[in-house]
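Issue 218. Parser rejects a valid record. Input:
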Amino acid sequence: MSRRPLALLLVPLAVLTGCSSPVDLPPGPFASDPTCGEVLISTPDELGGLERRSTSAQATTAWGDPAVTLRCGVEPHGPTTDRCLSVDSGDGSSVDWIALEGDDPSLPEHTRPGRGSWAFVTYGRDPAIEVVVPAEQGASGQPTAYLVDLAGAVDASPAERSCVGATDVS
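Output the parser choked on:
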């Protein structure tokens, strides 16, 4: 085989692999927790019409471009006054999420979303799970729709506590 036909075969391969580069994410500090494996296996191949993408770290996954990302094994939050959302899915799962601002210091620098983006971290679950929705993917104004679709998978990390509001305490 001459070099020319081999080169012609490699060019399309290089183009295809260039389009599917992995999303660069660091693992959470507790990514090796076996529960994270259960969570990741249960995540959908498609999320809100976005195709799954490969990632560069253990216990992470992503969908779309720019990517909606999920990292399992992040630092669990203790009691907080941050806004907490209880998200129910169609299968009866309910997951509490802390909604963080893009510049929240509890988010590692590399995962802080840009202006107009959203970040959510499970509350009361160990290991905790983080979902970041870039502004471009939340343009419909419903970034929590992704959380509904992920509730069944996230439920693999058992709830130990739940959000409470001012009316829940005496």
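Fixed in the parser; the record now loads. The CA atoms of residues 11 and 170 lie 68 Å apart.
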